[in-house]
Amino acid sequence: MYKLGFYVPETHLEPVKAAAFAAGAGRIGDYDQCCWQVAGQGQFRPSAAANPFIGKPGELELVDEYRVEMVCADDCVRAVVDAMIAAHPYEEPAWDLLQMAELPE
């Protein structure tokens, strides 16, 4: 199992989550579409070569975003990451992927 975490602006929160869920993320036992999310504020400054969805190159931007986390099974993790990136509005979305360990006996 893996845990995928990503940051997304509020305007695209539900579409990006829906894409990840459709690819197989968020399944825990008899439940689906499981995730954790919290609102926060992201910061970035696009370079002159960037094509930002929000903001202008060379200017610091503060954006209301959500941090979303969801589990992914081994057999769908690549599809989930690809779906999240395809649905995400940012040129370079910020995300992380952690492999979850089995609980020792």
What is CATH's topology name? Alpha-Beta Plaits
Structural class: alpha+beta
* Helical residue percent band: 10-25%
Estimated radius of gyration: 15 Å
Main-sheet strand order equals 2-3-1-4
CATH architecture: 2-Layer Sandwich
Number of helices, where a helix is a run of at least 4 consecutive DSSP H or I residues:
2
Number of domains: 1
Query: What's the rounded overall pLDDT mean?
Result: 95
* Biggest sheet character: 4 strands, antiparallel
General shape = elongated
Instruction: Encode the helix/strand succession as letters.
Output: EHEEHE
Strand content: 25-35%
Number of strands: 4
Can you tell me the residue ranges where pLDDT is under 50 for at least 5 consecutive residues? Answer: none
User: What's the N-to-C terminus distance?
Assistant: 18 Å
Mind telling me the CATH class? Alpha Beta
